[in-house]
């Protein structure tokens, strides 16, 4: 298969305008005759469904939650980037583009990233018009803060709840379209399969989570906005229900999966505390604006800290190692996430971790409180401090936070072309669900930007180019043979899972999978570790299918059954991630192969052999997936070794 | 630590429910309330029983999915947090903990502790938005908003839509929820243009859906995990009243033509 991203000709700054001028349109009378399914109601899904409804298409939107407002975009804290240059500190569309390409360690597509930077400003305008209460100056205008990987302040924020406020904005736009009858909402639905008719995406099979009914829905196009797959690691900052299943079913129906191993490990999360822990909580990257990260410089202090003989404040400045400031003087505590995470791991592996488990570093606000006053710090981070205190029963105003990296975001996802279409015609993937814009590492405050860019502006413009040829296609009959067959297969798989009749719970296997992925395909990867994982994963999968126990029945509200389906897919995805990590014999961004590093421990890229997107094709149950390459051509930015020194 | 749990079990909306007792032991004070329920469910699965269904998702206090009356209080004993942010250190060893679903006519039980809160979505759909499309928007900084207006609007916009206010209210009123959205949007210049229509439509929808009336007990504010203030209710009442006056004035203008 030859992958064609369909990037428009011309200079980079003109590509998107040129594309939009040439793209085919659908007239309003015909839009009413066209159905679009949107799966997921996070920033990407809600904004896409709202905009497509506003344009006049017939939209059906699905979410597994009880209401669209709960999608996990709601938990994003820090902010959203845009190239407004309101602070007049030298920002521009080009600079946002450049920082994002560099931050992604030169593994993303230039044309997509430029377009993202280009529409970033429109997002802020729209959100403000919707009533999103961004932070403001006393003069009434919007204010910005800085974020990792940039030397300008281009991040708009709403206290530590930016994702919540943006999602509620998109949810309000969606609610307006639901009330107008342009969008129909299907909540508490798990989407379990894609239906293809003559090679084109024409619908989905869903399970009604309340009644257990298997339902069929047909449409002229299907849009997946189902988020990331970080829960493959069991412990992550994702919501408990976040899953890969709709995207995985698309993969099995012919959509290629791009860069599955590219995972973001976020540097500032609350450390793991015990065996029964169910999830990890992020502390916003914005805290690194004012917090200073350190561990003791001497081992003797480490021991005294762990045994609680001394408090962190007892250790004088001269005996502390502010290792990010030491190693990266130009960016200091604001280096990109992958760099900050690896540096924390390096210190803890060397024995300088400050908690009883040995896996934690300090994030200290004492200097900032002295400099700015407690009131200012409270206004900036109050809700985060409160959240931290509630979890660990310690006040960050008095003692430094303890943090450690945790799985947070997946840059990999379904491969899409410039139009955000997967390799299955009529099947689109937007937001975190696709692989496209962040390369091997995402910069902070860029996920919200990408989700909304895709949903409000990019997909609505590109989908008409496909649907223009579909105006003569009548509505599909969800009782046709393709739908019947797909529904039967879903039911069979559910029955098989339910009837396994084993002894162990779903969580038992999920936890084992998570540990295996974290240790062998997490922050540092090596050939022996990955090969070991490749041997163990099929065994774990077999054991799961032989020995899992699912209580209850198929035809009722059954959360264990939902989990079982998701974990079964994670068990397959894990293997693809490991294969991808194994084939990429270089280090780049969040993908760190121990064999490939510079003498001072930085990621060592191999541009000659690996400047490509690894896109995997499903070849059936018993065959290994096949790798296809989309070569990345850098016409504007010259790849160089990333330096934040 | 050890606890006795008395949990509401109900197979479906149509069947009758009852309180059932369970024991959990060796629970660490550091784990969360939901992690304690996870342990109970693992225990039940191992014994061949039916795990307890409860709503939860982000487990960091922001998505609003979790609910639960714990010892008769929405979101449990700690002020300003959701159930998912509760930790077992807030309970004492040997304590009997009563766990029930939200009790309100507008929130029917789905199963065990899970309720259907889609009525709240229907209220937002009636008008909880600014009617703008995604094109032709002026630059964000063309609309200055005084900082204290923006901050007050934010305080109201922090609502997570969990329904604790309805659960706490003796009349099962949704006034705090509705007023938070009305306040958020009417405090901002962007939301003023349709403020009159918005408050009327949202209040009418709230009444249709079977929520009760406000009798100023302020239980909603006490139990709100996001500490949304009842001054929002006062603001909504003012908006509602002036909307009534305005539309009558409008009628007079029309009649005189």
From TrEMBL, chain B:
Keywords: Iron, Iron-sulfur, Metal-binding. Residues 18-103 form the 2Fe-2S ferredoxin-type domain. Its cofactor is [3Fe-4S] cluster; [2Fe-2S] cluster. PROSITE patterns: 2FE2S_FER_1, 2FE2S_FER_2, 4FE4S_FER_1, 4FE4S_FER_2. SUPFAM superfamilies: 2Fe-2S ferredoxin-like, alpha-helical ferredoxin. GO terms for biological process: aerobic respiration; respiratory electron transport chain. GO terms for molecular function: 2 iron, 2 sulfur cluster binding; electron transfer activity; metal ion binding. Residues 150-180 form the 4Fe-4S ferredoxin-type domain. Gene3D superfamilies: 3.10.20.30, Alpha-helical ferredoxin. NCBIfam families: PRK07570.1. Belongs to the succinate dehydrogenase/fumarate reductase iron-sulfur protein family. This is Fumarate reductase. It comes from Chlorobium limicola. The lineage of its organism: Bacteria, Pseudomonadati, Chlorobiota, Chlorobiia, Chlorobiales.
């Amino acid at each position: 298969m030859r992958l064609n991203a369909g990037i428009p000709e011309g200079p980079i700054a003109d590509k998107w305008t040129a594309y939009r001028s040439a793209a085919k349109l659908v007239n309003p009378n015909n839009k009413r005759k066209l159905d679009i399914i949107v799966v997921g109601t996070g920033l990407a899904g809600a904004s896409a469904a709202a905009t497509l409804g506003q344009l006049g298409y017939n939209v059906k939107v699905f979410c597994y939650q009880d209401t669209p407002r709960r999608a996990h975009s709601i938990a994003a804290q820090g902010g959203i980037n845009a190239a407004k240059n309101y602070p007049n500190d030298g920002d521009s569309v080009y600079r946002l583009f450049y920082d994002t390409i560099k931050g992604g360690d030169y593994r993303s597509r230039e044309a997509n990233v430029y377009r993202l930077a280009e529409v970033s400003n429109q997002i802020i305008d729209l959100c403000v018009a919707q009533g999103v209460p961004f932070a403001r100056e006393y003069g009434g205008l919007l204010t910005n803060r800085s974020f990792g990987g940039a030397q300008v302040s281009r991040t708009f924020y709403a206290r530590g709840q930016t994702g919540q406020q943006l999602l509620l904005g998109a949810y309000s736009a969606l609610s307006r379209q639901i009330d107008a009858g342009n969008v129909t909402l299907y909540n508490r639905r798990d989407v379990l399969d894609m239906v293809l008719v003559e090679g084109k995406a024409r619908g989905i099979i869903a399970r009604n989570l309340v009644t257990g009914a298997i339902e069929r829905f047909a449409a002229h196009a299907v849009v997946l906005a189902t988020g990331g797959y970080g829960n493959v690691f069991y412990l992550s900052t994702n919501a408990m229900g976040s899953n890969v299943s709709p995207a995985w079913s698309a993969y099995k129906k012919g959509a290629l999966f791009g860069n599955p191993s590219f995972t973001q490990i976020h540097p500032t999360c609350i450390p793991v505390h015990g065996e029964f822990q169910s999830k990890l909580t992020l502390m916003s990257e914005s805290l690194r604006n004012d917090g200073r990260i350190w561990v003791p410089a001497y081992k003797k202090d480490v021991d005294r800290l762990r045994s609680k003989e001394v408090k962190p404040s007892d250790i004088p400045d001269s005996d502390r190692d502010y290792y990010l400031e030491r190693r990266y003087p130009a960016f200091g505590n604001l280096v990109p996430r992958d760099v900050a995470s690896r540096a924390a791991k390096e210190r803890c592996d060397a024995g300088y971790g400050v908690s009883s488990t040995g896996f934690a570093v300090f994030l200290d606000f004492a200097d900032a409180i002295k400099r700015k006053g407690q009131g200012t710090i409270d206004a900036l981070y109050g809700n985060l401090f409160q959240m931290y205190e509630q979890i660990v029963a310690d006040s960050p105003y008095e003692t430094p936070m303890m943090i450690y990296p945790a799985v947070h975001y997946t840059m990999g996802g379904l491969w899409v072309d410039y139009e955000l279409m997967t390799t299955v015609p009529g099947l689109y993937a937007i937001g975190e669900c696709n692989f496209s814009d962040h390369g091997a590492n995402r910069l902070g405050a860029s996920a919200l930007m990408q989700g909304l860019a895709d949903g409000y502006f990019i997909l609505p413009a590109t989908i008409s180019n496909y649907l223009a040829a579909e105006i003569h296609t009548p509505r599909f009959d969800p009782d046709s043979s393709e739908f019947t067959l797909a529904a039967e297969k879903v039911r069979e798989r559910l029955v098989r899972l339910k009837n396994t009749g084993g002894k162990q719970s779903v969580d038992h296997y999920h936890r084992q999978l998570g540990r295996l992925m974290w240790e062998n395909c997490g922050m540092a990867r090596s050939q022996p570790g990955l090969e070991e994982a490749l041997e163990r994963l099929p065994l774990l999968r077999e054991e799961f299918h032989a020995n899992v126990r699912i209580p209850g029945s198929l035809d009722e509200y059954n959360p264990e059954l939902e989990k079982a389906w998701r974990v079964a897919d994670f068990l397959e995805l894990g293997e693809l991630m490991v294969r991808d990590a194994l084939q990429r014999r270089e280090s780049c961004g969040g993908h760190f192969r121990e064999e490939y590093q510079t003498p001072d421990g930085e990621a060592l890229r191999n541009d000659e052999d690996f400047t490509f997107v690894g896109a995997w094709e499903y070849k059936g149950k018993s065959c290994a997936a096949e790798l296809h390459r989309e070569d990345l051509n850098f016409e504007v930015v010259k790849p160089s070794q990333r330096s934040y020194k | 630590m050890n606890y006795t749990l008395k949990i509401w079990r109900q197979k479906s909306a149509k069947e009758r429910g009852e309180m059932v007792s369970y024991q959990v032991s060796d629970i660490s004070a550091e784990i969360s309330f939901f992690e304690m329920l996870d342990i109970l469910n693992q225990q039940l699965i191992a014994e061949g029983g039916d795990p307890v269904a409860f709503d939860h998702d982000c487990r960091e206090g922001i998505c609003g999915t979790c609910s639960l009356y714990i010892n008769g209080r929405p979101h449990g004993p700690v002020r300003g947090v959701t159930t998912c942010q509760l930790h077992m250190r807030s309970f004492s060893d040997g304590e009997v903990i009563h766990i029930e679903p939200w009790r309100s006519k507008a929130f029917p039980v789905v199963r065990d502790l899970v309720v259907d809160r889609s009525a709240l979505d229907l209220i937002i759909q009636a008008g909880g938005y600014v009617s703008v499309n995604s094109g032709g928007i002026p630059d964000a900084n063309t609309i200055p908003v005084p900082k204290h207006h923006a901050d007050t609007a934010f305080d109201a916009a922090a609502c997570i839509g969990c329904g604790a206010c309805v659960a706490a209210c003796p009349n099962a009123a949704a006034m705090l929820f509705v007023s938070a959205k009305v306040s958020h949007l009417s405090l901002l210049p962007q939301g003023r243009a349709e403020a009159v229509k918005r408050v009327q439509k949202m209040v009418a929808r709230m009444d249709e859906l079977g929520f009760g009336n406000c009798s100023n007990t302020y239980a909603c504010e006490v139990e709100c995990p996001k500490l949304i203030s009842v001054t929002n209710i006062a603001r909504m009442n003012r908006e509602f009243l002036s909307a009534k006056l305005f539309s009558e004035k409008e009628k007079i203008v029309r009649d005189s033509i």
